[in-house]
Design goal:
eight-stranded mixed sheet; 14% strand
Length: 325
């Protein structure tokens, strides 16, 4: 009996090791293929010896629409909106440090986000004034830039953005329900191709079809956003604490676009947790209106968190309703 169990265990371990090796090779070949798709050199600027990638479309001299992605988000998130708005404005999106084609940075702070964005806009000759469009965690990362460059900003559009107090307001059960696996586990799954394989069959978000460019981009390039994503996730409390100190945008026109989540919250199946999440979300979204004396709120009735993909016309209208001088 012991001999049979030993042989079975040996077989299972051998198969497991073989699967790991196969997955690792699959991941490395995939990375080699997608690494070749790196943008041209003229789509990079150097900031303190780090390369930052950007995408600038349009050549209007009247001002620039600046897109800031959320947690781990890359420039490709904005491609549909950027293409449409570039007919009337200069537009720019970029990859934050450690995301996709941009080099990682050792330190992380709102000041660094501000300095990076300022350098990108300056070195790419983006005309002022700016209209800032931020999604999700951009409600945190943009605050220092807004404080430092308020005189250059004609308007802000916050799209279902994070609030500095959202973690404080959430129960431990709710926080655990939306907390991803540890860095070690995610790193292992990333290296052996499990995440790539998973997103081959399951979309990253059900907000749009699996074949949508957003889901395909996450599947193909998750390995290139991993370091930046982990850095942001591990420092979210620190960054939120910094953001909480920047709570006055003066009279800059501010539009808060709030998702209504008609189909519930992705990855939260417990109805009581969904109710808690939406209660906190709605309260804090309304609180964001206090950031400016010139603010208004718009509801995305058909959207979950990715209003950017589900109702992009709301964002386009919000930008166009801001009068660039």
């Amino acid at each position: 009996m012991k001999t049979i169990l030993f042989k079975t265990a040996k077989y299972v371990i051998s198969v497991f090791i073989l699967l790991i090796i196969t997955g690792f090779l699959y991941e490395q070949f995939s990375r080699a293929y997608y690494d070749k798709k790196q943008p041209s050199k003229d789509e990079f600027v150097f900031v303190k010896d780090r390369k930052i990638h950007f995408s600038k479309i349009g050549n209007s001299l009247k001002g620039t629409v600046v897109f800031e992605s959320g947690l781990g988000g890359d420039y490709m998130h904005w491609q549909e909106l950027q293409n449409k708005l570039s007919k009337d404005y200069t537009t720019i999106s970029y990859d934050k440090a450690g995301i996709l084609w941009s080099d990682p940075a050792e330190n992380i702070s709102l000041k660094r986000y501000s300095e990076d964005l300022d350098a990108v806009l300056t070195k790419t000759n983006c005309p002022k004034p700016y209209i800032l469009v931020g999604h999700s965690f951009a409600g945190i990362t943009l605050r220092s830039f807004i404080k430092d460059h308020s005189q250059d900003i004609d308007g802000i559009v916050f799209v279902d953005v994070s609030h500095p107090q959202q973690l404080k307001k959430s129960s431990e059960t709710l926080k655990k329900s939306v907390t991803p696996p540890s860095r070690i586990v995610l790193s292992f799954l990333n290296e052996v191709g499990v995440i790539r394989l998973l997103y081959t069959f399951v979309p990253f978000t059900n907000s749009v079809p699996k074949e949508h460019f957003f889901n395909e981009n996450v599947q193909h390039y998750f390995y290139k956003i991993f370091k930046g994503l982990i850095q942001e996730m591990e420092n979210d409390k620190k960054l939120m604490a910094e953001a909480e100190e920047i709570n006055n945008f003066g009279s800059i026109p501010l539009t808060i676009i709030t998702a209504k989540y008609p189909n519930g919250i992705e990855n939260i199946k417990d109805l009581s947790l969904t109710k808690e999440y939406l209660s906190i979300h709605n309260t804090l979204q309304k609180d964001l209106l206090h950031l400016s004396v010139n603010s208004k709120q718009i509801f995305a009735e058909k959207s979950g968190h990715y209003v950017t993909l589900q109702e992009p016309e709301l964002i386009i209208d919000a930008v166009k309703n801001i009068s660039i001088k």
